[in-house]
Amino acid sequence: EVSLAQRLLHSDFGKQIQELDAELTKQVEGSGPHVVLLVSLEPNAQQAEVTTGLGMTVCVQRSGPTMLVDADLEVRSITRAFEANGGGLLDAIIGADDYVDFVKPTSCEQLKLLPTGNDFATVDTTDAAQIAQRITDHVEEWKRRFDLILIDAGTATSWMAKQLAPHADATFVCVQLGHSQRERLIEVTQQLTNDGASVKGCITTSDAR
Prior knowledge:
Blueprint: H1 2-9, H2 12-27, E1 34-40, H3 46-61, E2 66-70, H4 77-81, H5 89-94, E3 104-105, E4 111-114, H6 128-145, E5 148-155, H7 159-164, E6 170-176, H8 182-194, E7 199-205
Parallel strand pairs: 1-5, 1-6, 2-4, 2-5, 6-7
Antiparallel strand pairs: 3-4
Helix pairs in contact: 1-3, 2-3
């Protein structure tokens, strides 16, 4: 975790994150609480670095509790980076557990982590209304306890991204250089808007190959 923080905050990538933090300050008005959603056009591990780096930057430059939420059910990069084994978001959604039971500390005192959760947990989407209500209840509870909630929701077309989109004050799309096409970005942005997202801009990440 320490090496991850150092790599993010003391690199060119860290500079981009600080610029994103400044943009976020302009785009999201008011003192909070605020929910910020990060999604991508395709599975993108660097998206997790953006989310984590932004959270650490916020902790350094501002006061107030912040929570990272790993809602990327496919990649789970944040959960793996912090070695946050055990229960998490999925367990809170599908069961009666309080999400607070799964929140993890980080090296930044004001920054907490809600990991993805049990690798074997699955969401029964047949009862969509009940699941949607549980997610709504959790987001409202997060907003009562944290000034800023940063959510890595994986790909923009994922089930989790669609569920979380209406609850976010700002949504940013991570675009990987050399992979994303303009037409696809326009299509995904429109889909997000239809899902209730407030898309504020794009974040460019390098080709991980």
